[in-house]
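Thread: Modeling a multi-component assembly for a lab meeting

Hi all, long-time lurker, first post. My supervisor asked me to bring a structural picture of a complex we are working on to next week's group meeting, and I have zero experience with this. I have the sequence lines for every component (630 residues in total). Could someone generate the structure of the whole assembly? Inputs are pasted exactly as I received them:
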Amino acid sequence: MSDFETVAATENQAARRGPSGEPGTPNQVGAANKPRSLAGDAWRDLRRNPIFWISLALVVIFTLMALLPGVFTANSPNDCLLSRQHAGPSGGAIFGYDFQGCDTYSRAVYGTRASLLVGALAALGTGIIALVVGMLAGYFGRWVDAVLSRVIDVVLGIPLLLAAIVLLKRVSSDSQWARIGAVVFVLALLGWTTAARVVRSSVITAKEQDYVAAARMLGAGNSRIMWRHILPNSLAPAIVVLTIALGSFIAAEATLSFLGIGLKAPTISWGQDIDTGRIHMREAATPLIVPSTFLALTVLAFIMLGDAIRDAFDPKLR
Amino acid sequence: MFRYILRRLLQMVLAFFGTTLIVYALTFAGQGDPIQALAGERPVTPAQRAYLTEKYHLDATGVGGFFYRYFDYVKNLLQGNLGESLTGRNIGDILQQAWPVTVRLALIALAVAIIFGVTAGVLAGIRRASIFDNSTLVLTLLVLGIPTIVLAPLAQYLLGVKWQLFPPTAGSDPTFYALLLPGIVLGSLSLATALRLTRASVAENLRADYVRTARSKGLVKRRIVIVHVLRNSLIPVVTFLGVELGNLMSGAIITEGVFNIPGVGFNLFRGIRTEDGPLVVGIVSVLVVVYLVSNLVVDVLYAVLDPRIRYE
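Re: Modeling a multi-component assembly
Sure thing. I ran the full set together rather than chain by chain. Output:
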């Protein structure tokens, strides 16, 4: 079983069992007499790691929140009355109302969607660029590798926030989807380098394996070897890096929205709400604290999840 | 070594032209009639128009003209001539006033990272898998995971507004005390990274052969750690902190904006808010150069400090 499949299986099982799940029955990889594989070892470690379960539970909750916000709150986030400005909790609005008189909690719940969407799409875009570049550089080596590695170095040398500011200032459209698309594009364009390096190094390891030589002897072409043999075996580390990147993309999106150049008004985003709450913190603190907590928990959940999986898979750290 | 520095230098030049080209292309090129934009609503006489066209080489069209003006922009940038903001102030003057404040803030943040991060990192590295080690790991993960836009306003609210331990905002000509809380917030991220780096490095070096030799010679543990291990394991930490100083000088946009500190980041923050295009572009261009140069210096420093690392 390849590493990637194991990671996927791990996540599936965990999702089914939920956060309170007891350590699974010992039907895992290599639990029998044969020596345990790296994946089996990793899974054994993960199962005992409380951080893994906590972060997984948070990821599941926030994903559900993004898909079905109506389940978590009955109030509409756009039902705002200035007469309720900074009013205390009432009628389902458990954290009271913000500066515009909107339900603070409901806005935070509905803000999940934009954040996760941007984070996931940016991670997807990053993953595609990183896989293509890393695969080409790692598989073909020589001048292809030299050129692509220098491109990676140069892009890595560009400060993300500054470049994003310049790029996003250029986007004048205020339409909801145009802004989401622009933020995703900018984050993916600037954020793919780390993942590409990871893919490159794992492709270099994978292409020396015997099964690749065997496939080549059986007459498989370059594209078939890359797609069917090397790709599945070099995905796992990339997915771990991308999980962590997803968290940092969510933070980056919130930062850009906070600055006023990311997502804009009709889209509900935590970054904007934090900015508004920050300005009025002396009058009411909950409109600042609630979206801040949501944002911090989401980012943490993805970063901790990736970190836990990486620690489990990296024997050097044990 | 020489070849490495040369290659690194070439790379930086590439990155410099790459980023400035992007900045230039996105902000100055293709934005209607720049002469009319300069004049605002007032009419432009043909003589003025001809003069400005001549002066800024606006008559050269196509790719050649674009690059001609791009190199004009790069030349001005390298000479420190950044033009004027929309409010009519010289951007060079703005930066000159803002820079000392930002440097002070960055130094406070760096001091916080060194004093707490490196010390705790050494302790955690020596006592691996202890309660102290595990709790610092979880704490640093928390700090690394919480974005500045959450940390800065919350620290401002709790410590500045609610409990009133620190002044919530700094204002013009800030005192050391007013910069302390923002410095801690800004430094917390570097603190966490420095701690993890020190810990990993100390733990790795403790297992090295020369430590075993020192121990078998009968040296006390304290001496082994201070004289032998620390000297070797602080190399990556020193270089990291060098990079961080560069980042801190340019990356304090949010912290300076939230705490109202009149530094470089604050001016950029305000420029974005007030849609002051020239100010944003001027500051970003300078910051990109600072970032690239500090990265270069640190990479070279790393190669000098640690001869074990081989560059082809």
